[in-house]
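Q: Structure for this?
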Amino acid sequence: MEKSNNHLVIMAGGIGSRFWPMSTPECPKQFIDVLGCGRTLLQLTVDRFKNICPQENIWVVTSESYADIVKAQLPEIPETNILKEPCRRNTAPCIAYVSWRIKKQNPKANIVVAPSDHIVMDVPEFERVIRSGLNFTAETDSILTLGMKPNRPETGYGYIQADLSFASARNKEIFRVDSFKEKPDFATASRYVKKNNYFWNSGIFVWNVSTIINAFRVYQPAIAQIFENLIPIYGTPQEQDIINQEFPNCESISVDYAIMEKVEEIFVLPANFGWSDLGTWGSLHEQVPHDVYGNACIGQNISVYDTRNCMIHTTQERKVVVQGLDGFIVAEKNHTLLICKLSEEQRIKQFSEE
Amino acid sequence: MEKSNNHLVIMAGGIGSRFWPMSTPECPKQFIDVLGCGRTLLQLTVDRFKNICPQENIWVVTSESYADIVKAQLPEIPETNILKEPCRRNTAPCIAYVSWRIKKQNPKANIVVAPSDHIVMDVPEFERVIRSGLNFTAETDSILTLGMKPNRPETGYGYIQADLSFASARNKEIFRVDSFKEKPDFATASRYVKKNNYFWNSGIFVWNVSTIINAFRVYQPAIAQIFENLIPIYGTPQEQDIINQEFPNCESISVDYAIMEKVEEIFVLPANFGWSDLGTWGSLHEQVPHDVYGNACIGQNISVYDTRNCMIHTTQERKVVVQGLDGFIVAEKNHTLLICKLSEEQRIKQFSEE
């Protein structure tokens, strides 16, 4: 594996509506210091790759409206590596665009695609797993996904069913995927978790640039044609204007539907590095440190009394006192306050809109 | 009753520690728009007397540190009517000072003394009661208190026991006081409420200036001597300097202990004008309008779901969503957030200090 060939693609176009009021369409969660550690989720995503990728090989695909935030938060990456989608078209067109763009620069590129809004608690293990995956895709034309070992019957994630009897000959921790499973109901998720060959679909993919481009050519020829035609303009002053014209012509489709579920042979690397996609307040509550009563407090000067199992996130408040709550979210940002049972958090999106 | 003789004395030196975080020592509750109506409690207190007292007869006694706030909130009253206590000495020295000060200006003054942090829901009835009291003290050398008809066994107020068989000959709604009762325990308060001759001690007093000055001379000669000696300097440029020297020599004592409990004949005017001393969040919750689920919400854009019996006061927030609470205080001010059961509100002072 040649380090100079390693590229990181960060997808940073999400709007994080379930994390209101911390996350808003103007500044979604990937641009926020969710953990109260001084770095935003986007910055932490880049930080995790500091030993893996050169800075000039880090790419961020985001919407036009977030480009200035990305530039401000990642001053170390080249401005031309921030690719701007003129409209939302889900993940497949996003990945296609950046793949063709990278290929023009380095046909030997070996790529990790990662969302910008996940957290990883065990960064050394993350780094080891990513290196293992990149070594694999440097040598094979394989599509590799990272599968997270589940510790609970989570209904908010898709699952990957692996065939543990078919380990790759080149890498004994990589297995063939039997099938992808959509977000299950609770009974199904409980069944998955009892088995040892079901993993959460993390949305982190590893492949070399030829593999993914060939997959688009075979399974998504219309999308492939659009970006193939634009090869002459990548890296030129006309790039953004022409992308603004052509990108909206792409079908809006996820890479899971467009590629992963169609390709015959896909691989999974099961891993365990304290991962969460931070889709909801509940997932943040589970991942961050708790006091002995199960309270996770992120913010300055938070005092709790007679309080259990609460997620308190008040980074703009100077002093917070919470007495007598059990199982609640308390979140404040930009003069907006939410108090809501964790068990009712699926209603937050509606609350934020009313 | 001559309107030009009517004076209002507002005591505005309290620090409102049980209303944290809305009320802080830097800006206690009397200077805050507690009701969210656009006027502070101090301003509302003045407003209630607009048909009773000329503006030049309104006096505010406060601590030096709040004088600028008073001046800003009451631009209509003469600056020289804001009397500044150099230190806290409870209510008796405060009342003595302003009484001698007023007497020098108008020996026929007829005075209402009122706290600055109470609320009154029925202002026309308040005005009628005050006029009735002032008519009484314009004609008699009596000390009159207003007694509030109790509607619950409140343990946070002192009580006045009246002798309902001794109505004044001059005013049939005014009775002799049998005794003053300190804040009772719950059983005692319940007993009081079942009778018809126990009233909450509102801390609102009515008397003419000679009556109160004579009472000080008889029952508090040391305090009387201090303010008698200063007659030559009231209203002169030296007043504040000399008050700063002499005021600290006064005993720290409430007017209740110093005068009311010593004078042989005191009168009470039982009244019912939606009064609360707003000592606590619970008292505010009881007085202000509720939704059908018992929630009192003061602030912009507050939405409640599955929520009952809550006091929400978030006047600096732009949007607030509360789901799933029953019987809580939610209060935010100056980047300070409190969530606390109403039943635990006696702990708020401690919370604010920790």
